[in-house]
């Protein structure tokens, strides 16, 4: 079976990054913002940080004129970019700019529609065809049917019910369900994962042409979180008793559009934008929109049904970072550097060279007087099955440490040394 | 009475009673007699329980619901509160105050003279307590999964074979009609030749982070609870929650293979067969004390060409349960009396006299008691139970190593992979040792 849950080793990531830079350069990206009911001043710099931080995109932020300003001056050269990210919901663009954008997409341009941008341009037919589904700003049955997913996983197109499009639930941790596990953007993702403290949008309507629903929210599992409180506890009513799309992939002309409803921004991003599920799907959706393919591995810290996962600095863990942090391991603070190392071992499979590199790093921790006993215990557990003769002396040298006697016994028994 | 009470003693004793030569067995108190017109207690299976948490108590109640079947005389648990709760249930059933309580299974096994023992303990204890119980030559009702590791499981199977143990696994789905019917349709070719089996087991659930170290409740002997597992401080994750920690369990995957994979094997004629090749992916929580996989997707290949996929149910269209796919269609079965097929007519098929009729039991606990009395095999013997958990445990090794595991069933070993082979066992914390057979 194909291994799907992988993360690149630093070496591999660097190689990929270098070759990407050498071959095609990074994908030039334009983030359009400047108006909206949401905190676009918070979100757009974070979008840039996430995109640039991947090494795959080089983003610049372009602000439209302020609300009520002269839109005829807003005339970006879309064709300069491989990807356009919309963090915008405001005044209508000029007809010329709209036409240029439609041309850009029809000719193969990539677009990411981020969160509140699904509410933009209710009057612009082509825009609504590109986004697939939208809501708010006066949208009703004339915008298209309600589209959602039933409990059995079937897409429901309701073109008989009239009514306003768009509904927002109070912010909460909620579960996302990966509906389409074959699409490049969502292939290999866990089928259930938690998004932290986000706005859940629902009741969207739209033409839904050439649209694939990749993921939905799940009305069954929601955990409200009061400010400062830990996840869990009080349940909150969902906006509608159905599975509402949260990630969509749309084809329009030769272009590709990724519509993500996730990632409501607080100052500095906040938990919804720090959620690994948001970050990873944004990057995967952006790559697909730009190129039609996804080369990124699913990161080891992609959330699961077990709970939310945040990256407060928006940066993925590297093997150097993990081995640096594991030295001060304390289970009550975080286990993620340990689980990262375990993911690297599984990822290495039968690659002796990579396994030996990991083993050497582990032995360095065993020899490090600064490293906690708990860190050494964990690594002894891993070495007990994946270690070679290389580690044996370092393991034996720890046997005089009374805190580690049992763990050393465990390792040497399994290693048969 | 002899010191050792085994099935043969039981049969002899029953025979003696029938012949009018009844003598009071030393283990039956007079107060247990004279229960208005029921069978004399000597015809009841004298039984004790090790592990009287939620599953142990559930089994006890299922045994007590049977008429004149068992006589509970002793309970054992590392939690003295649970001992008392169990004693109350037993004493109420026996209308006396005589149920004996133990905190150490070794003392329980040494002192009690029993026909049978009901075992419901955390998986990391199975290797030791199952083999030691079997070696006492009693009949055993043991919870699935058989073991935490393949090496533990091999030891348990070897002990049961050596002692010719009457063994019932807690795979009670075998005693429900929809599962047997589904398996019978499959094994008799009503979906054609079986090519592929899909098994959906529960998704993993929410984590708890890492709770702080706490005082051990006075009722719990924490060191004994840990037993052969690594010594760790008490964080309140003990009863029930052990299922989500790899030191004690493989999570939903290993827990539930004892149900739906067991049924899958039953209906595909794979009860006595291990896969030859196993690969798989696991999704592990990145944070927190619970480290068992919350999603998993395992593919097993069998020598006869059948493939079996075992995954958390949210990954599968049909969700929980077992689905046999043949070249003519499929049959699916799950809890809640679920039995469905690609064509409803398949479900109306009659199984002919000369076709395969699977073992029929209408009550899993009664079936065990009947076998203790008769010496005949139970509906859920030990080897199929081991072969069910082998699927999960090899899958776990495949997920841990990121490699495809090749398995030699005859030699009971992994082929040509030293690292993966080390994962066949978990070394025990001293002084605990797996008994040698």
Give a quick set of tags describing it.
heterodimer; A: 417 residues; alpha/beta; Rossmann fold; 9-stranded mixed beta sheet; two-stranded antiparallel sheet; 11 strands; 33% helix; 19% strand; B: 437 residues; Dihydrodipicolinate Reductase, domain 2; 2 domains; 6-stranded parallel beta sheet; 12 helices
Quickly describe the structure.
The complex is a heterodimer of chains A (417) and B (437). Chain A is α/β, with parallel strands linked by helices and 417 residues long.
Question: What does this protein structure show overall?
Answer:
The complex is a heterodimer of chains A (417) and B (437). Chain A has 2 domains: 10-291, Rossmann fold (3-Layer(aba) Sandwich); 319-415. In chain A, the strands form 2 sheets. Chain A has a 9-stranded mixed beta sheet, with helices on both faces. In chain A, strands 5-6 form a two-stranded antiparallel ribbon. Chain A has helices spanning 10-23, 40-53, 95-106, 125-131, 270-274, 276-291, 319-325, 336-348, 352-367, 373-386, 389-397, 405-415, and strands at residues 27-33, 57-63, 83-86, 110-114, 146-149, 155-158, 167-178, 192-202, 211-223, 245-252, 255-260. Chain A has 417 residues and is α/β, with parallel strands linked by helices. Chain B folds into 2 domains: 7-173, Rossmann fold, CATH 3.40.50; 176-209 and 228-350 and 382-422, Dihydrodipicolinate Reductase, domain 2, CATH 3.30.360. Chain B has helices at 7-18, 54-65, 80-94, 105-111, 126-134, 150-163, 177-187, 222-226, 252-268, 364-374, 382-401, 418-422, and strands at 45-50, 70-76, 100-102, 116-119, 139-142, 167-169, 194-201, 277-283, 295-301, 307-312, 321-326, 329-334, 338-341, 405-408, 413-414. In chain B, the strands form 2 sheets. A 9-stranded mixed beta sheet of chain B has the order 13-12-11-7-10-9-8-14-15. Chain B has a 6-stranded parallel beta sheet with strand order 3-2-1-4-5-6, sandwiched between helices. In chain B, helix 7 (177-187) crosses helix 9 (252-268). The longest helix of chain B is centred in the last third of the chain and has 20 residues, at 382-401. Chain B starts with 6 loop residues before the first helix and ends in a 15-residue tail after the last helix. The interface between A and B is large, with 47 and 45 residues.
């Amino acid at each position: 079976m194909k291994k799907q849950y992988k993360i690149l080793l630093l070496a591999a990531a660097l190689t990929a990054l270098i070759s990407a830079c050498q071959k095609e350069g990074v994908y030039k990206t334009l983030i359009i913002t400047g108006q909206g009911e949401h905190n676009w001043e918070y979100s757009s710099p974070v979008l840039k940080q996430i995109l640039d931080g991947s090494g795959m995109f080089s983003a610049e932020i372009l602000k439209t004129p302020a609300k009520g300003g002269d839109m005829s001056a807003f005339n970006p050269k879309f064709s300069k970019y491989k990807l356009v990210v919309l963090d915008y919901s405001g005044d209508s663009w000029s007809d010329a700019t709209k036409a240029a954008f439609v041309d850009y997409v029809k000719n193969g341009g990539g677009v990411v529609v981020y969160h509140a941008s699904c509410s933009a341009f209710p009057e612009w037919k082509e825009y609504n065809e590109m986004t697939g589904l939208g809501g708010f700003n006066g949208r009703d049955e004339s915008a298209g049917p309600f589209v959602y997913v039933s409990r059995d996983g079937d897409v429901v197109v309701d073109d008989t019910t009239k009514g306003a499009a768009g509904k927002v639930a109070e912010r909460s941790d909620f579960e996302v369900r990966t509906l389409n596990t074959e699409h490049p953007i969502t292939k290999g993702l866990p089928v259930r994962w938690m998004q932290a403290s986000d706005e859940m949008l629902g009741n969207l309507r739209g033409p839904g042409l050439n649209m694939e629903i990749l993921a939905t929210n799940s009305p069954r599992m929601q955990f409200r979180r009061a400010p400062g409180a830990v996840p869990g506890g009080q349940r909150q009513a969902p906006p509608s008793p159905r599975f509402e799309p949260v990630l969509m992939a749309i084809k329009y002309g030769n272009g590709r559009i990724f519509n993500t409803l996730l990632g409501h921004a607080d100052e500095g991003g906040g938990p919804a934008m720090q959620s690994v599920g948001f970050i990873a799907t944004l990057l995967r959706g952006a790559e697909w929109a730009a190129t039609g393919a996804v080369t990124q591995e699913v990161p080891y810290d992609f959330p699961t049904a077990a709970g939310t996962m945040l990256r407060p600095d928006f940066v993925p863990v590297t093997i150097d970072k993990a081995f640096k942090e594991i030295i001060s391991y304390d289970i009550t603070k975080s286990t993620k550097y340990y689980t990262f190392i375990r993911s690297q071992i599984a990822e290495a499979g039968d690659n002796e060279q990579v396994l030996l590199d990991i083993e050497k790093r582990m032995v360095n921790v065993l020899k490090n007087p600064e490293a906690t006993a708990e860190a050494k215990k964990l690594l002894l557990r891993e070495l007990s099955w994946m270690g070679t003769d290389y580690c044996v002396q370092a393991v034996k040298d720890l046997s005089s440490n009374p805190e580690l006697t049992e763990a050393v016994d465990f390792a040497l028994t399994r290693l048969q040394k | 009475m002899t010191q050792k009470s085994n099935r043969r003693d039981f049969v002899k004793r029953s025979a003696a009673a029938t012949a009018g030569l009844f003598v009071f067995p030393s283990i039956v108190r007079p107060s247990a007699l004279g229960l208005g017109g029921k069978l004399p207690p000597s015809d009841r299976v004298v039984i004790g329980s090790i592990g009287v948490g939620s599953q142990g108590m559930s089994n006890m109640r299922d045994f007590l619901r049977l008429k004149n079947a068992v006589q509970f005389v002793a309970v054992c648990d590392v939690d003295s509160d649970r001992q008392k709760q169990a004693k109350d249930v037993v004493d109420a059933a026996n209308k006396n105050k005589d149920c004996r309580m133990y905190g150490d299974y070794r003392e329980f096994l040494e002192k009690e003279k029993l026909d049978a023992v009901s075992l419901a303990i955390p998986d990391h204890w199975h290797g030791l307590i199952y083999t030691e119980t079997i070696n006492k030559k009693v009949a055993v009702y043991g919870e699935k999964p058989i073991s935490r590791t393949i090496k533990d499981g091999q030891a348990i199977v070897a002990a049961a074979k050596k002692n010719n143990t009457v063994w019932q696994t807690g795979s009670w789905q075998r005693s429900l009609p929809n599962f047997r019917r589904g398996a019978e349709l499959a094994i008799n070719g009503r979906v054609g030749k079986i090519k592929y089996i899909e098994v959906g087991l529960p998704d993993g659930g929410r984590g708890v982070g890492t709770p702080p170290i706490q005082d051990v409740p006075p009722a719990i002997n924490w060191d004994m609870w840990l037993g052969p597992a690594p010594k760790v401080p008490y964080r309140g994750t003990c009863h029930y929650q052990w299922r989500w920690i790899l030191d004690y369990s493989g999570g939903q995957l290993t827990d539930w293979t004892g149900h739906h994979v067991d049924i899958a094997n039953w209906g595909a004629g794979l009860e006595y067969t291990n896969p030859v090749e196993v690969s798989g992916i696991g999704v592990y929580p990145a944070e927190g004390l619970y480290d068992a996989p919350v999603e998993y997707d395992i593919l097993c290949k069998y020598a006869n060409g059948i493939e079996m996929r075992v995954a958390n149910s949210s990954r599968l269209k049909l969700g929980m349960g077992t689905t046999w796919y043949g070249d003519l269609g499929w049959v699916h079965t799950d809890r809640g009396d679920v039995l469905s097929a690609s064509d409803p007519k398949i479900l109306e098929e009659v199984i002919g006299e000369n076709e395969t009729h699977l073992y029929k039991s209408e009550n899993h606990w009664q079936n065990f008691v009947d076998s203790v009395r008769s010496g005949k095999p139970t509906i859920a013997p030990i080897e199929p139970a081991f072969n069910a958990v082998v699927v999960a445990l090899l899958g776990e090794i495949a997920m841990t190593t990121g490699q495809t595991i090749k398995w030699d069933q005859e030699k009971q070993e992994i082929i040509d992979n030293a690292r993966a082979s080390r994962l066949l066992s978990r070394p025990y914390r001293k002084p605990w040792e797996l008994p040698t057979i």
